[in-house]
Amino acid sequence: MYEIVKKKSINSQVELMEVHAPFTARKCEPGQFIILRVNDEGERIPLTIVDYDREAGTVTIIYQIVGYSTECLSQLNEGDYIHDFVGPLGQPTVLKKHKRVLGIGGGVGAAPLYPQLKKLHEMGVSVDVIIGGRSDEYIILEDEFKAICDNIYFATNDGTRGTKGFVTDVLNTLIEEGNCYDEVIAIGPLIMMKAVVAVTKPLNIPTGVSLNPIMIDGTGMCGGCRVTVGGETKFACVDGPDFDGFLVDFDECMRRQGYFKEQELHACRLDEKVDALEK
Amino acid sequence: MPNMSKEKVKMQEQDPNVRITNFEEVTCGYTLEEAMEEAERCLQCKHKPCVNGCPVGVPIPEFIKAVKEGHIEEAYEIIAEENRLPAVCGRVCPQESQCEEVCVRGVKGEPVGIGRLERYVADYYMKHVDQELTPPESNGKRVAVVGGGPASLTCAGDLAKRGYEVTMYEALHELGGVLMYGIPEFRLPKDLVRQELKSITDLGVKVEKNVVVGRSITIEELFEEGFQAVFVGSGAGLPRFMKIDGENLNGVYSANEFLTRVNLMKAYDTHSPTPVRIGEKVAVIGGGNVAMDAARTAKRLGAKEVKIVYRRSKDELPARQEEVHHAEEEQIIFDLLKNPLKILGEDGHVIAMECIKMELGEPDESGRRRPEPIQGSEEVMDVDTVIIAIGQTPNPLLRNTTEDLDVNKWGCIVVNEETMETTMENVYAGGDAVTGAATVILAMGAGKQAAKSIHERLSSL
Ligand SMILES: Cc1cc2nc3c(=O)[nH]c(=O)nc-3n(C[C@H](O)[C@H](O)[C@H](O)COP(=O)(O)OP(=O)(O)OC[C@H]3O[C@@H](n4cnc5c(N)ncnc54)[C@H](O)[C@@H]3O)c2cc1C
Ligand SMILES: Cc1cc2nc3c(=O)[nH]c(=O)nc-3n(C[C@H](O)[C@H](O)[C@H](O)COP(=O)(O)OP(=O)(O)OC[C@H]3O[C@@H](n4cnc5c(N)ncnc54)[C@H](O)[C@@H]3O)c2cc1C
Ligand code: SF4
Ligand code: SF4
Ligand code: FES
Ligand SMILES: [Mg+2]
Fold this sequence. Notes:
The complex is a heterodimer. Chain A is about 30% helix and about 30% strand.
């Protein structure tokens, strides 16, 4: 059992937790993730490690409430326990000592982007970031990014913050203005990462993306997380989750990610369970 | 006078038409009377050929004698000396090619139902005897065990019995390995596995679940933490794919994914938060136990038509006969001498599979006749779900994170077959991680052998 030592609401749909998980805290690196089960009947859901404290043995996760299991997680409070919590999983991000890097985070994708940019900043790389969200309310980790980035830009669908439009609109502008980046790191919805790559690939700006296919074990045992990268099948949980964006078959990823939508959305199942949990 | 019937005492089974609608156990086990009657068939052979057929050396005539006399607790104690997972083994051991293959009674008629008796004894004991285990006194020596499958459990249990302080590290949230995530509930009930595992962990084995050795902690770090030996029983969990077109379409599962969703994550219960989808027409590719399990599971989830697609003929099916027989009873269709060429999709989802007919040519190195495609015999079958069950190899995670651990060209950990020691000093390995996908009882035998070597090494220190 893994104690929740801190819980914080970030916006109406996104929350942060610090969880006591010494095995994970001792070894994790930016880019890696954990898999948790909220209770002993729970499903296994992957979440990126956003931060860690090796001394205290804690790991920070940030999650968006999108369905049954994240809803169950959100019902827990400080002092409660998460039933299972395994990590660190996946490969650490390979961070190169470039001159200048642009991070692009969409929605809750800004959370996994943060530790990577933070590490780059600590390595002495000059870092800019574009954060996107549906509206101002969904912009997360602004202060944290400000502390490590030279420039911070925003894009919201409704224009309540920064550019009205997509992160790629900001990206295009930055490039038109003559900004040069050695690498772009894009983390967010698959459709956003695909759009970013559509801009960077013709310009040959190396672009790292972080894939989030449906996972179960996270150890390479089930093959459910397979993705096509450069024409080859890879298991995102052990070979990734970071890949060279130029090589990823995003359309296949998007299709596979939606495979269980109907079952996941089975509303009666969800309500029943959440009701039972509240009692 | 022994019971000279040529046949084993029949075991009750659920009716095939009923059992394909539920996940309850197919076979119902013996009653006391039936068990005693079957035990009478054993001739108590002095030279005990049957025992040589058992990889862990269960004292077969001795335990059967106790059953014959109705002393079931005593029979259990006799078995448990050599095998701490008898309820599991009695159900899933391929007895026909092990203990029962060499049983004298098998010469004329059916061998003694050793597995069935073993199962009876274990079930009786679990149901009627409240087992209170007191861990033996510690000898102060510490051993780490990687994985929680049958190989590791056996190694851990044997060492704990000898007073070692054993810590078991399992990557998943449950112990048992394939017993929990692979073999379906209707063949091996999970509550029973949990209960039987407890008889091992109660010997004082410290269990750390949710720890992936190689990631959460490395083998080197285990030694730094004061462990004096490590046993690796990480299994053969990496699913093989065919590398044909369409394998990443929606509706294509590896057997591991499909079975893990249903078994470990209980997706057969529609209230489980872990989803599973099954179509109407399912093709399972492969002919082993895993393929049979996947096909029978698909049927129970409501698929209308389930086919086993296998490239050789019925005689070469690697699955246990009993499983093939059960599958046939459950209306699984055997589409043999056929090999998939590609999986066809529409809007990203499987709609059909193109196959080619095969014929058997000359025997290959394995002695089996080699299947060869018949030119021009391509055909397309309508399917909406494909489950690939063509084998598993050892998971590369551990070897990729452990420099000095040598593996062969198939990724199997190299060991000294006498001692089970790997190329790293004081690191031992056994089970599927060493042999590739094999059987529960061979994994247990390897765990036992390794425990013996570890004991010899550490007690001489
Ligand atoms: C490596 C990785 C890192 C991730 N990091 C984060 C993170 O830091 N913060 C965050 O909010 N989310 C993250 N996710 C996504 C998160 O795992 C899903 O949002 C979560 O599993 C949804 O579960 P649910 O039951 O609440 O929703 P559901 O209604 O069951 O599912 C909603 C959608 O989430 C996805 N999903 C569902 N089950 C899984 C699963 N087992 N594995 C992966 N995706 C699934 C599917 O696209 C699904 O359509 C990450 C995913 C991966 C693979
Ligand atoms: C569907 C199916 C049906 C089968 N049916 C039969 C049958 O009827 N009869 C029979 O005899 N055999 C059967 N087998 C084969 C049998 O189950 C295996 O041979 C046996 O389980 C091997 O035992 P093991 O201990 O070596 O490995 P496993 O049972 O695979 O256990 C390995 C364990 O190690 C864990 N692990 C792996 N890597 C790590 C790591 N890095 N850190 C921590 N933990 C780790 C895994 O999560 C797993 O729990 C079947 C197999 C399958 C898949
Ligand atoms: S453990 Fe398996 S091989 Fe050994 S006697 Fe029992 S059923 Fe036979
Ligand atoms: S070989 Fe058969 S008959 Fe002889 S002792 Fe063993 S089980 Fe009994
Ligand atoms: S999640 Fe099972 S192999 Fe990646
Ligand atoms: Mg879910």
